[in-house]
Amino acid sequence: MWLIGVSRTQEKVVKVNSGELKVVSERYNGLVRRLEVEAVVSHQGLPTPSKKSLAEALGRIYSRSPDLVIIRRVESDYGVGLSRVYAHIYDSLDRLKSFEPEHILKRHGFGV
């Protein structure tokens, strides 16, 4: 089962390309059955990592298939080498298809 709120006991960090992704906050939404995650990825001197590589990294952290990870938004500041990532990690594919908007499902390759 997911932890509710922010986990302060264990830092969640994983390598992404040549950078590093660190979870800043997480919140379990029990009604929708998804984890809502905010993370920061450092990529000094490199382009912003792709949504696919970010989904794979978050999937590794939470032991989920990258197919269950939806990257909602990536905000990058020009020249800083840091980006803020907002993601939803679902418990099942059925829940993902029930709650994500149609344009997000199409973007991630799910036929609607």
Shape: globular
CATH level-two architecture: 2-Layer Sandwich
Strand content: 35-45%
Let me know the average pLDDT: 87
Provide a count of the helices: 3
CATH domain fold name: Alpha-Beta Plaits
Q: How would you characterize the largest beta sheet? A: 5 strands, antiparallel
Helix share, percent: 10-25%
Low-confidence stretches: 1-9
Protein structure class: alpha+beta
CA(first)-CA(last) distance: 29 Å
> Order of strands across the biggest sheet?
1-2-3-5-4
Q: What is the CATH homology-level superfamily?
A: RRM (RNA recognition motif) domain
CATH class: Alpha Beta
What is the alpha-carbon Rg in Å?
14 Å
Count of strand segments: 5
Q: Please trace the helix and strand order, writing H or E for each element.
A: EEEHEEHH
Number of domains: 1
Question: Can you walk through the features of this model?
Answer:
The chain has a 5-stranded antiparallel sheet. The protein starts with 12 loop residues before the first strand and ends in a 5-residue tail after the last helix. The chain is globular and about 40 Å long. With 112 residues, the chain is an alpha+beta fold. It has a single domain, classed as RRM (RNA recognition motif) domain (Alpha-Beta Plaits, 2-Layer Sandwich). The N terminus is likely disordered.
